[in-house]
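[Q] Does anyone have a clean structure-token version of this?
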Amino acid sequence: MSHRSDAVVVTYEPEIGTLLSLISALAPQVDKIVVVDNGSANLSSWRHQLPSEAVHLVEQGSNNGIATALNAGFAAVRQRGSAEFVALFDQDSAPSDGMVSRLECYHDELIGRGPVAQIGPYFFEKNRGHYLPFIEFAAGFPRRKHSPETGSWTTADYLITSGALVPLSAIDRVGLLDESLFIDYVDIEWGLRAKAAGLQSYGVFDVRMQHAIGEKALKLATVRLAMHKPIRRYYYYRNALLLCRRNYIPVSWKLHEVLRLSVKFWIFALFSRHRVDDVRMMLKGIADGIRGRAGKLRERSNAR
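[A] Here you go.
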């Protein structure tokens, strides 16, 4: 067990067995697990199953978004006052044995290169059936870094939140996650903000984790695209445009993202299982992004 790290797990209507498996996998790896619940209707059916000696539960009462939940987790960890790092997890992640301590070791090795923003594992995305690359822009173009024949780590511009080990000193320097985004691009924004502040993110190829993104993937020829509920399309397009308005976001990222989302718009409009609702939400997201509107979309559905 590491006494240097606490874990923060964000929940929203979790599948109970999967959540308990995650807690069981984390309990031997960290000092304390902070579970931040975003207003789950099924909370009463699983809260009593959490091991009280290992878990501290923070109830948000409503779905306030992933950034707000993670920031509440950081606050709970700081209140305990003993952790150096926070390991972040979604409710359906499956970390490998010893993952946290291995990421800590990489931090101790890489801190000699300069300030570290975060370190994350190479993870297998179950819905698409492949490992996701680490991303770093070079000469205006994104480099998608997969496991090389030599070397165990690589630099990255940002990491997927789940599985990331974040030094609390990095939060002190960069600031908390941006709650105005609610969900989607929260991890990208913080990673790019950290890079602009002079901190480096790292991906580690020989530390692995499994995770599922969204629903069943949409398969087009040899490409598999992550699928989400239509409301997520709103946040995806709106938040991308909101980031395009910020001066610390690289121009190359802005141009690439606008092009990528333009192509995806037509893919979702033509091939999505929810194409009518997807188009409606994408257009609303584009309109609100242009207007500069942020925060939670006040609709009947809730985002996850």
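[Q] Thanks! Anything notable?
[A] Residues 300-304 have pLDDT under 50 and may be disordered.
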